[in-house]
Structures are given as structure tokens and as C-alpha cells.
Amino acid sequence: MADVHDFRINIPRPALDDMRDRLRRTRWPAELPGVGWDRGVPVDYLAGLVRYWLHGYDWQAWEARLNEFAQFTTEIDGQRIHFLHVRSPEQDAMPLVLTHGWPGSIVEFLHIIGPLTDPRAHGADPSDAFHVVAPSVPGFGFSTPLREPGWHHERIAGAWAELMARLGYHRYGAQGGDTGSVVSPLLGRLVPERVIGVHLNGGLAFPSDDPEDLVGLTDAEQARIAAAEQVRRYGTGYADIQGTRPQTLAYALTDSPVGQLGWIVDKFKEWTDPAHELPDEAVDRDILLTNASLYWLTGTGATSAQLYYETRAAPPKPVVRSTVPTGIAVFPTDPAIRRISEREHHVVHWSEYDRGGHFAALEAPDLLVDDIRAFFRRLR
Asked: Does the pTM of the predicted model rise above 0.70?
């Protein structure tokens, strides 16, 4: 296909050797006794992950696993875009564009691409099949180098519309969590004649300052609001830094793989299923390290952070309520309230789960896949 090029991940051996050398020479910080996770990632926990990164983890095995999926690059609006494009064996499958967030990547989709594209092979109804397109957000992974400022959510949605058209998909669904929970609805608003439906997880729906927003909330909704307020009070420092000084942060993330790992692990601790005490209990340790390795080996700790700056810098626009049918899956740690979500989205499907977390595709892939299937089933 014109302007679309085959791609395979092939990290050269010197880059892997350099990463391992830097891991061995880590200069560990001092730590106050007895503070646990209250002030960030504890040294003993991160040191344990690093020992495994050095002596137990095999990047090349995971690189091979990622390369089992067909990958491509193309240029859109002056930016190199890398994407997975996995076609279903079912010819009448629905095209579906998946969008990851920060601090995630295409690694998030490892557990769901198979069941989505080939439900027959996974014991499910083949009529629920999807052709999956999973781009790396500009500045993330292999959608680099980031060539200019201005890659905010709306521009990303525009690039996805062009990508899907370039692939020959004129009617398709959109799904996403975190950044994807913003980009996917924007894609629906941008080309509502093409987007069949939008499915979201990991989305935000905070009450406004109007006291009426807090009237009639269920116990579960009140608990989600309380948890969200806790996060806003103590857990948004990363966004303030990335949204105001991404270049200053870049030096630490680009020079230290341990610094990059710690920056990511902090969010996996805060945002994963609270039923699990540690991040690698909620998400497989090898997956955590594959995601962190991808950031490190592509040098995208810096450029991925730029998205937060662009989001703050983008001129505010009035929100127009979407007309596209929208489904929302709510997992533990997601501060989503249906009647607030309905102000912006045409919600026709709402599910609440007591297992999983912000990284649902990694934490509860079975639940997420089933929910995506159930939502789009009525729209085929």
C-alpha cells in the first residue's frame, strides 16, 4: 500500500548492552526509614525489579512476541506513525482502532489482540471479530522522532481518521483508555459518519463545583469520587511536571533506565487494582519491564511527556456532546459517574466491574474483551 511501510522491531545489541551497563551502575538514592510508598517508589522494591531486569528478563523474547503482530509505519501530517495492523481471519470483521495512553504503549494490547481478532480460536463467537489497528501515539514508542510541537489530543484524533482512511476502513469503531479515552471520543466527533461507536475505559468524569453534582450518588460513586479526590491531592505531581517542564524532566528519563522505570512504576502502583498491594501483582513483572524497556530503548520518556504540555497549551474549546453511540467500562480506580459522562457522550452501554484497574487491557483482559464485544455487537 502506498505510503505504508512494513516494520519490525529490531533493537541493536549495543543498545541492550548499554541499558544493562547503566542498570549495573545505578546510583541509588538515600531513603527515609519506615515511609513505605507514601513518598514514592521504595528503594528496595525498585532494586528488586532492577535485579530481575538484569538477570531474569529477556527483552529479545518479548521483542519477538511483539513482532508476531504485523507492524507498519506511515507519515501523517509530517509525523511518523507506527502501528500494529492485525487483520482477523473473519472476512466480515469490524475494523477497530485502539488507542493507548501514558505511561502505557502498544504493549498494553498484548493480551487482547488475539481474542479481539480471532474469537473463534479463543472459544468465542466469530461474529464478534475485529480487524485491529493499534497506533503508537506520536512521541511514544516508534512514532518518533516527534518533529514539531502541537500534537495534542484533537490532532491525534485527526491523524487516526487519516490512518483508517489510508488503510481502506471507512466505517469502524474506536476504543481507548487513559489518553485513548479522550482521543477516541474526539475521533467520533471529528468523523461521526465513519465511527460506528466508541468504547472507553480508564476515563474521567469528575463532578463540577455545582453541589447538585453530588446529590443522589450511589455508595460506589461516592467511593470513586473520594478516591479521585485523593489522587488529585497527592497523585498528580507527575502531570504538573510533564505539563509544564517536560524538557527538564527529559534528562533524568533519558539518562537513567532506573529513573524511567521508577517514573512508570509509580503510576502502576497508584492506578492498578487496589486489591493488589504491589504493581507486579496487578500486572505481570515481565510486562511491566517490557513497557519500561520500550520507553527506554526508544528514548521516549521525554517526547511522551510532551503530550501533557500540549494538552495544557491547547486553546480551550466548548465541549460538544457526541452523537456517536458510546460504551463505558468502569474498573476499580476509574472515577467515572454515568450521569456526568452523559453530558459529553451518547452513552448506550455502561458496565461496572470489581476487578481490574486503570490498565484494564493488562489487568483484566477477559473482562475488557467481553465488554468491547458486547458493546459493538449491537452496532454491527
From this structure: yes
